[in-house]
Amino acid sequence: MNVRSQISMVFHLDKCIGCHTCSIACKNIWTDRKGTEYMWWNNVETKPGTGYPTKWEDQEKYRGGWEKKNGSIKLKSISKSRTVTDIFHNPSMPSMDDYYEPWTYKYEDLFNSPEGNDQPTAIPISMVTGEYINVEAGPNWDDDLGGSPVYAENDPNLQGLTEEQKQQLFAIERLVFFYFPRICNHCLNPSCVASCPSGALYKRGEDGVVLIDQKRCRGWRQCIAACPYKKTFYNWSTGKSEKCILCFPRLETGQAPACFHSCVGRIRYLGVLLYDADKIEEIAKSSDENLIDAHRSMILNPNDPEVIKYARLNGIHDSVIESAQSSPVYKFVKEWKIALPPHIEFRTLPMLFYVPPMSPVMANKNDDTVQSVSDKFFHDIEQSRIPLQFLGNLFGAGHQGKVLYALKKQKAVRTYRRALTVGDIPMSVAEKMLTETNCSKEEAESIYKLTSLCTFDDRFVIPPMHREEAIEMMKDPHEHRQSVGFGFIEKPVRGL
Description:
The chain is α+β, with helices and mostly antiparallel strands. The protein is built from 20 helices and 15 strands. A 3-stranded mixed beta sheet has the order 12-1-13. A two-stranded antiparallel sheet has the order 2-7. Strands 3-4 form a two-stranded antiparallel ribbon.
């Protein structure tokens, strides 16, 4: 058992209000420099929608992530024979048009324009060329346009839906959407790390944060093509790649990352997980229908004496183990099983998980009375406006089972709390729903408290980083550079 620690995250989509405060906090701190104008390490998308960059989920177009081939997994975007030629032309590389050309406005025209009959305007100019541009796209161009046929109909997650389901989804009277915030997943099997010819990308052994060594980066940009989530970016000014660093300087001082700290809806949770690194390759090869269970099986019980023993042998400090025992992420993912990884079929084994949203149902109004299509207080999950297949494509590798379970458990908890506090639902009905989702009353109370009454310390259980020990153990006696982790080099499964 090769026990390692990994900083992991949960985003509760039912609580996201789409305010973009997280995006602005990240932008102001990390990507307000020349060459980073188009970068949004944190962005919030509207689903259904095409996202940023446009249709990033379409791996037929971008060829990111891993694929199973001849009994092993290989990178989709790169091979030894194509490494050099792809520098000159890589058809899978997103262009600036897939993101957007960043712009500002020529504000001096508002003050320096000659006197005339018309109000002067500030024209948009490119932040790359300085020339006038006709603005045609932005980082959240389809924001709140979940029913728009221009954007929503091009969402790759609509694959497998019937034509009737699609038409119902886009009908104005059934219009519904939800917000989907995204950052780097800091994956256990990161394709960006495996694709880098110069070895500039690496996972920190002490906490699993994926970083780019700016001194070693040579601007090959293979990481950009290889990342299926398109969360690695190219700085056109410095000629280096950049990405979300999970605000590790903040983590090292016990502070939550900026996007987490600033979240208005309190949707974000952060904690440390212990996992078995020996299982990475085996699990990455799992079939699509078994990937979620296999992924969860990697996450180890931090209270298990055997796990604690091997964690200590691998240099994991007792304080980190104690933090893992209090991790909210462990509860959501492993105990309650209501948080799911995005597009697990990309096989990067992401360590950012999402609690899927409970979408509303249809209702009608008769004699000033709003009536639901269901005679139950909380509608059946299958009657949600967003088809289960859509959520299954996003969070279940195309399968609905795990998503359905997560939603039914959320519904059971809501029903139980309604029966307990208001009393207009029989407790017998609530108890039956809890039983159907293998949820005890104690577990229902725990879910309720962590999702509704959580404090700052409940949401963010940040382990002590012990940088003084990590630095000593990372020293390489043969080179004047640091290797990775507590005496080991983190190597994701390579496809080269």
